[in-house]
């Protein structure tokens, strides 16, 4: 996890006057400073600052104006920012209290909790209903994970820009069947104008791309891993000579081993034109019969299914090879790595050090906050912006 967090500062000489009179309904915009008053604060550098009592010229309402980084509260924004930073980095609320208090900044666990929740609630976008406004991308990566909240598993869906890895949305889902995934994903696809969905090879997400008329790229790393382990397993069974199902469909052991070796080679080169080759091999096994209920699936039937599946999957697996943007660049790498990395860094890494979240709201809020920080890695995430 890499983050770039910018802490708020306290500037005792910079006063920020309100644009409008704070009294409800008063349109006054001019204020007279009446009196300088001192204010004790909890801060790393300034134990005391001055504030101004100001009067609205229109209605006579008197209010205080604080220097930059200070509010009517006792704890400075810098200390609140440090609390949020330490929490994001993995400390518990209580541990943040201990660290800051030992450095002379007295902040209670409850204030740490409030500061974190406040900032998390102000992260812009990253919710399906409220996406980063106007953000557009041609391809999104989608994936689903789960986190434990108050003893129960909560399903969390994440959507990233499949081209640059920017996190677009992190949402709690009622479940992960095709209908639920579609209800979640379709508005996001519409909002960002995406034509392509990148995902792992779970059937539910394949359905979503079909139902919504989007093209799909199935993550090549997943498929390569799965295929390799199946090729290895089936080749070993054939070589052991215990299974006689191939004889029944008149395929020799040598032929079957060669077909599996070809599949392994094709899955690595992923040439779009190999689809016909897969079909041809599939046809060699097409007559393999499904074993009776309760009987173990034999080698011939499993090879038949493996080739049928890869033959059908082929366009979704090799999609990225022929898909180009308007400038003729290939902008997808064929994996869903952006999504997996986002889950690992922004959802799972902070979560690993706890026994689970207490509330679903926190799980989403904290994940969104960290993902938002990740989205702002190059500029840095200014915590003061989220505290204003
Ligand atoms: Zn006023």
Q: Can you describe this structure?
A:
- The chain has 388 residues and is of the alpha/beta class.
- The chain has three domains: 5-121, no CATH class; 139-219 and 335-374, Nucleotidyltransferase, domain 5 (2-Layer Sandwich), CATH 3.30.420; 221-320.
- It has helices spanning 77-88, 93-102, 109-121, 178-192, 203-211, 220-240, 245-248, 253-269, 275-285, 299-317, 319-322, 337-352, 360-375, 383-387; strands at 5-6, 11-15, 31-40, 48-56, 62-65, 67-68, 139-149, 152-161, 167-173, 196-199, 215-218, 381-382.
- The strands form four sheets. A five-stranded mixed β-sheet has the order 9-8-7-10-11, sandwiched between helices.
- The longest helix is centred in the middle third of the chain and has 21 residues, at 220-240.
- Helix content is 44%, strand content 18%.
- Bound molecules: zinc ion (ZN).
- Zinc ion (ZN) is lined by residues 21, 23, 26, 28, 56, 58-59, 61.
Overall pLDDT metric: 93
Tell me the fraction of residues in β-strands, as a range.
15-25%
Overall shape: it is: elongated
Structural class: alpha/beta
How far apart the termini lie comes to 26 Å
CATH fold-level name of the largest domain: Nucleotidyltransferase, domain 5
Q: CATH homologous superfamily of the largest domain?
A: Ribonuclease H-like superfamily/Ribonuclease H
- Annotated CATH architecture of the largest domain: 2-Layer Sandwich
The value of Rg in angstroms is 29 Å
Spatially, the strands of the biggest sheet line up as 9-8-7-10-11
Contiguous low-pLDDT stretches (5 residues minimum) are: none
* Bound ligands, each once: zinc ion
List SSEs in N-to-C order. EEEEEEHHHEEEHEHEHHHHHHHHEH
Task: Determine the number of helices (DSSP H or I, runs of at least 4 residues).
Answer: 14
């Amino acid at each position: 996890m890499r983050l770039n967090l910018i802490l708020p500062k306290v500037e005792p000489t910079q006063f920020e006057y309100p644009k409008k009179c704070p009294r409800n309904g008063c349109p006054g915009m001019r204020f007279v400073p009446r009196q300088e008053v001192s204010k004790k604060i909890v801060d790393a550098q300034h134990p005391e600052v001055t504030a101004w009592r100001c009067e609205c010229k229109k209605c006579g309402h008197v209010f205080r104006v604080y220097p930059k980084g200070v509010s009517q509260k006792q704890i400075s924004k810098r200390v609140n920012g440090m609390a949020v930073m330490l929490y994001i980095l993995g400390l518990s609320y209580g541990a943040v209290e201990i660290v800051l208090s030992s450095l002379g900044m007295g902040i209670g666990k409850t204030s740490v909790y409030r500061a974190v929740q406040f900032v998390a609630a102000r992260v812009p976008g990253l919710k399906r209903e409220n996406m980063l406004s106007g953000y557009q991308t041609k391809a999104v990566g989608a994936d689903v994970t789960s986190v434990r909240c108050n003893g129960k598993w909560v399903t969390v869906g994440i959507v990233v820009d499949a081209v640059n890895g920017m996190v677009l949305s992190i949402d709690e889902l009622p479940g992960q069947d095709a209908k639920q995934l579609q209800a979640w994903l379709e508005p996001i696809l519409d909002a960002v104008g995406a034509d392509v969905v990148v995902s792992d090879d779970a059937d539910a997400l394949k359905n979503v791309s079909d139902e919504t008329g989007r093209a799909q790229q199935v993550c090549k790393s997943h498929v390569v891993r799965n295929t390799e382990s199946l090729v290895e397993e089936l080749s070993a069974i054939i070589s052991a000579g215990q299974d006689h199902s191939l004889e029944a469909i008149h395929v020799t052991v040598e032929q079957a081993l060669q077909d599996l070796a070809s599949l392994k080679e094709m899955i690595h080169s992923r040439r779009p034109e190999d689809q016909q080759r897969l079909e041809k091999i599939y046809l060699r096994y097409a007559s393999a019969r499904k074993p009776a209920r309760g009987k173990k699936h034999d080698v011939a039937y499993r090879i038949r299914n493996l080739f049928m599946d890869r033959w059908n999957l082929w366009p979704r697996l090799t999609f990225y090879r022929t898909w180009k943007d308007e400038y003729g660049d290939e902008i997808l790498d064929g994996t869903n790595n952006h999504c997996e990395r986002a889950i690992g860094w922004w959802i799972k890494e902070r979560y690993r050090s706890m026994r689970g979240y207490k509330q679903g709201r926190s799980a989403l809020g904290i994940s969104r906050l960290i993902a938002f920080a990740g989205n702002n890695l190059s500029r840095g995430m200014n915590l003061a912006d989220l505290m204003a």
